[in-house]
Design brief:
single chain; 111 residues; alpha+beta; Immunoglobulin-like; three-stranded antiparallel β-sheet; 2 helices; 9 strands; Pili_assmbl_chaperone_N; Periplasmic_pilus_chap; Pi-fimbriae chaperone protein
Length: 111
């Protein structure tokens, strides 16, 4: 391989790496954590699609401190939500599940 073709090959790799790493986000959150105490029955977070015309899907779940997904006693509803351009959505937790869990352990629940 000649030096010129080797240079063009490396230039192509660098350009692909620079262009391929871009990402666009269109959903903004009003908070990143929800705290539910024993006296609260639920908690919610507001999501806003900042794009005026592109819809986005927002997926939510609950994890423990080690990053493992939790399926009970806390649950996020809806787990997958479409938010159209310029609209707002919300993430919450069901009242009975969180209320039972927080009162049983007697502490605050963090989502």
């Amino acid at each position: 391989m000649s030096i010129t073709s080797n240079k063009f090959c490396w230039m192509g790799v660098v350009m692909l790496a620079a262009v391929g790493g871009t990402a666009q986000a269109g959903v903004s959150l009003d908070r990143t954590r929800l705290i539910i105490t024993g006296k609260d029955s639920s908690a919610s977070a507001n999501l806003t699609n900042t794009s005026p015309d592109i819809p986005f899907l927002a997926q939510s779940w609950v994890e423990d401190s080690k990053g493992n997904k939790i399926t009970s006693p806390l649950v996020v509803l809806p787990p997958l939500q479409r938010i159209n351009g310029g609209q707002k959505g919300w993430r919450g937790s069901p009242k009975l599940m969180v209320l039972t869990s927080c009162r049983r352990i007697g502490k605050a629940c963090f989502i």
